[in-house]
Amino acid sequence: MKRLATVALTALAPVSWGSTYAVATELLPPDRPLFTGVMRALPAGLLLTALARTLPTGAWWWKSAVLGTLNIGAFFPLLFLSAYRLPGGVAAVLGAAGPLFVVGLAALVLGERASLRTVLAAVVGAFGVSMVVLTAEAGLDLVGIVAGVVSSASMGAGTVMTKRWGRPEGVGPLAMTGWQLTAGGLVIIPVAALVEGAPPALDGRALLGYGYMMLINTGIAYWLWFRGIGKLSATSVTLLGPLSPLTAAVIGWAALGQALTPVQLVGMAIAFGATVAGQLAVARTPQPFSSTEQIDRNISMDLSDKRVRR
What is the CA 178 to chain-centroid distance, rounded? Predict the structure, then answer.
């Protein structure tokens, strides 16, 4: 029951991210995705860091910079580049393939065993998403495809390394989220300035949209996401990813008047079923270690033991 509650709370993150398209198209200035990335990440990061009242120390300065770049600073621009160069459906499918990166990296870096059911759940989930978002007119662009694949790989690597490094002793997920969002926002600023120029003028609708994106869509959502990574396996967390495009489709139907075809409805059922099946498969898969932190602790104890073990 405790695991179920953790999964449910973590799932709220991709559900929230599913509202990004609707908010961006209805409230935010057009053609400013990088500025939007900065407005999502940096204010939220500074706010969470201030609330946590904790700054990184020692190696955590560069670790936070690496994680912030993987999860935010590189992920956002590459995701936006993919979205601009590809039809939204193709970009969404590339994003839905992210769990496959995590399954492989988690096996290599964390020792998380991926069962056949888990791999099938990731593949079927991506297939279900493709039924929801792909259209017959969808075209392909090499730069867009590469950007989409690398963005998924970046987020996947960030998820795995967030799990691998854990958190400093006495530091909670609020501070860790704040550090990463701040670092990621700082990485995007020079890119946004170079590509998009000066910030646009903001009206009341834009301020409302950015406020939502900063507080709910990014601050709270990423806190729930990183909290989930600390309590669940990396594979379990990433298998929740298809909930984002599914939520976007539901919001498009309910709020924007976009029709859903029978094929899309079947795809939604398949993707959601794969997400649930993936969680059940991960829960039943025995893991060789309880956590990466325990691995490091055991190694440290062994190295510090003065007795020579024969």
Answer: 15
